Amino acid sequence: MPFILYSQSELTLQKAIERTLQNNYNIRIVKKDVQIADNNLSYGNSGFLPSLDLSGTYKLSGEDTETKTEDQTYPGEDNRSKSLNGSVSLGWTLFDGFAMFARYDKFEDIKKLNEITLQLEIESRLQELFDTFYQIVMVKENIQLLEETLKFSQERVDFLKSSNIYGASTGTEVLIAEVDYNNDFSTLKRQNVSLNTALNKLKYIMGETNDENFEITSTIEINDLDEYSKLKDLAFERNSTIRQAIANRKISELDEKLIEAAYYPNIKVSASYSNSQNTSDKGFILESSNIGYNASINASWNIFDGFKTSIADENAKINTEKQDIYIQNIRAVIAMNLKTNYDAFTDLIEILALENQNLETAKESFERSKSMFKYGSINALELRQSQVNLLEAKQRIANLKYEIKTYETAILMLTGQLGG
User: Fold this and answer.
1) Residue 188: CB partners within 8 Å, gap ≥ 6?
2) Which of 126, 158, 357, 362 would suit a FRET pair with 152, their CA atoms being 20 to 30 Å apart?
3) Is pLDDT at 284 greater than 90 in this prediction?
């Protein structure tokens, strides 16, 4: 029984890419990190700009004092007082051992790192999209092959049943044909399950939340690749994982500068202006006011901190050296993965050519077997074997194309060509 998909729209690979770039959850999350890094990149956040504080206080109080002696009691009188204070203060770090410059550069490199991380996330999700998309193409092709096989299996059952009526075939042959038909039908249903699973995964990758079904009619086309040496150079230049490691190393260098800023003095200026008004109903002073300003410059220089700064500086240098080793390791891993995928790609291309030759042989053998079966030269089991040989030859080609495409996609990602 054929698989039926009630589709509402045709989905091409380009449309799937556009939806993934716009709606994929992981990509959207990393984009937020880029926005945060962009917000952090500012002169104020790096310490270049001054701070300005404004404060004010309004206070209202009342007192009722009563005095008692041995002779008599002196009642008190209500005393109400009010006070209003306001001030504005300015603080500005003029020099902090170049830490503000290093801090700004670090925020800038963190932004670049997040952009590279976004690019890596896009490439990863697109690789996942391509693999799933072409898996659907492969499964649909296998379903079509199984539908054709199932149709012939049904014809074989019908033929043997008719032949059995006239004694040209046995009941056992009919039963075997029916078992073969059921096996083909079961295999077809399993492929339907695989197709639905892949379609649901594709929807998730594209960030789709509706129940819309898609009709995918694409085919798997194998593209030619450059020679390995060119691809290796391209990978070392554009691979996002390598670029990410290099960006982290630059940040480690800036961490060194931030620590080394402690070796220099700090110079800060501050200024303030204040105004206060006080009034009282009773007492010697009924009203007072105070208006004034002050300014100062402060310089500080840490002479000795128990070697804490020097230890932190040494550790930062070691961390930078560690980043160098990590970059070398990443390059080696990328080169290894690229060589593995490239060798597999080229070997499978050769195998695909052989399988195409086998397919032509299997087609010719099956046509001959059908003719010989009709004339009684071979039995039903031999016809079935010829049918299975043709089906497997076609399936091997469909599966092989998908496998080659996954290696091609992996190579594109390793060489930084997948995300554009």
Assistant:
1) 1, 3, 143, 146, 147, 150
2) 357
3) no
CA dist list (Å): 199 to 38, 81, 394:
36, 78, 23
As a whole number of angstroms, the distance between CA 39 and CA 114 comes to: 12
Tell whether the model's pLDDT for residue 325 goes beyond 70: yes
| 371-412 per-position pLDDT tens digit | 998 888 888 889 999 999 999 999 999 999 999 999 999 999
User: DSSP state, 224?
Assistant: P
State how far the Cα of 30 lies from the Cα of 308, in Å rounded to an integer: 36
DSSP string covering 56-103: EEEEEEEEE--EE-SS-EE---EEEEEEEEEEEEEEEEEESTTHHHHH
Residues 6 or more apart in contact with residue 168 via CB below 8 angstroms: 376
Residues in Cβ contact with 240 at an 8 Å cutoff, skipping those fewer than 6 apart: 116, 119, 120, 123, 416, 419
pLDDT in tens, 136-164: 999 999 999 999 999 999 998 998 888 88
Residue 25: count of CB within 10 angstroms of its CB: 11
Per DSSP, the residues of 328-348 read: HHHHHHHHHHHHHHHHHHHHH
Q: Where are the beta strands (DSSP E) in 257-376?
A: 266-280, 287-300
User: Are 273 and 88 contacting, i.e. CB atoms less than 8 angstroms apart?
Assistant: yes
User: Worst-scoring range by mean pLDDT, 12-26, 54-68, 191-205?
Assistant: 54-68
